[in-house]
Amino acid sequence: MGSAQLILLMGSLILLVILSINFYSSYRSKSEIDIYNQALITGTGIGQSIINEIQTRAFDQKTITKAITSTDSLTAVGSLGPESGETSVTNYNDADDYKNYVRYDTLGVLAIFKTWVDVKYATKMNPDLNSLSKTFTKRIDVFVTNTYLQDTLKLKHVITY
Amino acid sequence: MGQLLELLGASIIGGFIMLIGLALNMQISDSSREIFQSTYNQRSAITASQVIEYDLYKAGYGVTGEKVMQADSNAVKFRSDFDNNGTIDTIYYYTGAASAMTSTSNPNDRQLFRKINSQSPNLVSVITRFNIVYYDSIGNQLNYSSLSSSVQREKIRAMRAYVKTELPDALNNLYSPMEWREMIRPKNLL
C-alpha cells in the first residue's frame, strides 16, 4: 500500500468517526429535548390546574362577604397567606391563602411534579412589578419542578378586583 | 503473494467501513422516524388538551336545567350554549375501541371523539387513555356509580381531565408515553 493510499484511508476513517460522534451526540440531545418537552406539557397542565383552582376563590379575605371600594380594607402586604384556622387547602377561601402553598402530583410517566405558589400585590398598570402597598391587583406565580424539567416552569396569572 | 495479502487487507478494511456506514445510515433513518413520531405524539397530546380545555370551561353556560348529562370515567356529555346563539348544544366526548386502530401496532391506542348535538362525531386525537374524574364543591371525588343519578351529577363542580398518548408503533420496544392532566372548574357549574 502506497503512502498516498494510506493517507486517504486514514482520512476516510477519521471522517467516519467524526460523523458517528456528531450523530450520536445530536441523537442524545434530541432524546433529552424530547423528554423535556413531555415534562413541559404535563407540567403546564398541572400548573394551570392550580391557577384554575385559585380563580374560583375570592380576591381577598375582606371581599368574601362584602364589596369594598378602598384598598385600605384589603389584607396587609405582610399578612398575605392563609388566615388562622385555614390549615388545609379545602379551607382556603381567598386567592392569597395559596401563598407558599406546595402540592405534589404523581403521574405515571414522569413521576412527581412539585408545584409551589406565590401570591403578591402587583402594580396595576405593570403587573409584572410587585407592589409594596395594597392594590386591587394580585399576581399569582406558580412554579413547577420535575426531574426532567431542566429549569423551573413558571406560570403567571393576574387577578383583579 | 504480497499483493494478494494487500488486496485481502484492503477488502477487509473496506468492508468494515461499508458496514459502519450502513449501520450509521440505518440509525439516522430510525432517528428521523423517531423524531417524526414523537412530534406526532406530543402534538396529539397538545391537541387533545386544547380542545378538551376549551370545551369543558364552557360546560353549563346558559343552561337552566341539567348541565352534565353523562359522567363516566372515559366519556362525558354536557350541555352549553356553545356558540352563544341562545340555543343549548350538547357536547359529547367518548373514545372508540382500541381494536378499531388496525393500522398501528400499539394495542392500546384509540380515537377520542367529540360530538356536538346530532352531528357526525369529529376525531379530536389518537390517545391511549382518556379519563375524567369529577369533584364536588368541597373537592371530594364523586363516585362514578353514583353519577348515573342526575341529582348526583348536579353536584359536579370540577372535572379533572387526563389524556395519555403513545407512539402508534414501538421504537426500540418503547411507545414513549406522554401525559396531560388538568383540573378544570367550569364557571357555570360553580
Structure commentary:
Chain A has one domain. Chain A has 161 residues and is an alpha+beta fold. Chain A has one helix and four strands. The mean pLDDT of chain A is 91. The longest helix of chain A is centred in the N-terminal third of the chain and has 53 residues. Chain A starts with a helix and ends with a strand. Chain A has a four-stranded antiparallel sheet, covered by helices on one side. Chain B is rod-shaped, with a radius of gyration of 25 Å. Chain B is an alpha+beta fold and 190 residues long. Chain B has one domain. In chain B, a hairpin with an 8-residue loop joins β2 and β3. The longest helix of chain B is centred in the first third of the chain and has 55 residues. In chain B, the strands form two sheets. A five-stranded antiparallel sheet of chain B has the order 1-2-3-4-5, with helices on one face. Chains A and B meet through α1 of A and α1 and β8 of B.
